Amino acid sequence: MQKKQPTLVLMGLRGSGKSTLGRLTASRLGLPFVDLDEVTTSLLGEGTLAELWARLGEPAFREAEARALHESLASEGADSQVIALGGGTPIAPGAANLLRDAVGRRDIVLIYLRGTPKTLRARLAATDTAERPSLTGAGTLEEIERVFAERDGLYQKLASGVIDTEGHSCEALVEKLEQVLAR
After folding, report:
1. pLDDT of residue 125
2. In a domain? residue 118
3. CATH number of the domain within which 41 lies
4. Residue 1 belongs to a domain
5. Are the CB atoms for 86 and 50 separated by under 8 Å?
6. Residues 6 or more apart in contact with residue 36 via CB below 8 angstroms
7. SS3 113
8. Is residue 2 part of a domain?
9. Is the pLDDT of residue 183 over 80?
10. pLDDT tens track for 136-171
């Protein structure tokens, strides 16, 4: 019996390309795509990420995010898929251990899409950030360096691999992700 291909899980800060690259990679590979932000918001009810964050608070949001991750990974023997984590999913209660264990079992390949704060800010500035909650009390664009400094080390430790997104097209990054899964 042939072992199933592991699920590809994309991790990174806001603006790193998790959702965009996840959708493109899943489409190219003929795999289902899961956007964990969408799963989390559906668990919490009506509203955007920013509205739910403001109404329920960070602890409730992170608990729902951890539950969404658990549900997305829990399908024992399920077909492979591509999952784009929320930017803060790895800091949700129990999420880092869940990801670490799944990597250790080789159920997932966890790729950190790493961009510099300058690049992340430029990408986010070109989008509508109104639906993104402030994580630090500063504006979405102003908090990037702080959030990067707080999370970069953890994301590098958790990851099966790191892909530097600087100066690469979406097409080139999708090809890199396909190569990761082909190994």
Report:
1. 77
2. yes
3. 3.40.50.300
4. no
5. no
6. 65, 68, 69, 72, 83, 84, 85, 86, 89
7. strand
8. no
9. no
10. 666 666 788 998 999 999 999 999 999 999 889 999
Sign (positive or negative) of CA dihedral 142, 49, 160, 115: negative
Question: Counting beta carbons within 10 angstroms of the beta carbon of residue 56, is it exposed (0 to 12), middle (13 to 18) or buried (19 or more)?
Answer: middle
**In the block, which residue shows the tokens 């960070």?**
58
Amino acid symbol at 126: A
Sign of CA dihedral 150, 99, 158, 86: negative
What is the Cβ-side half-sphere exposure of residue 5, based on CA atoms within 13 angstroms? 18
Radius of gyration of the chain (CA): 16
Using CB atoms within 10 A of its CB, is residue 22 exposed (0-12), middle (13-18) or buried (19+)?
Answer: buried
Query: Any idea which residue has 């949001």 for tokens?
Result: 61
pLDDT given at position 34? 95
Helix extents (H) in the chain: 18-29, 36-44, 49-56, 58-73, 95-104, 117-125, 144-158, 170-182
Pick from 17-21, 82-86, 127-131: least confident: 127-131
Residue 124's domain comprises 7-182
pTM of the model: 0.91
pLDDT digits (tens, 9 = 90+) for 54-66: 888 889 989 999 9
Number of domains forming the structure of the chain: 1
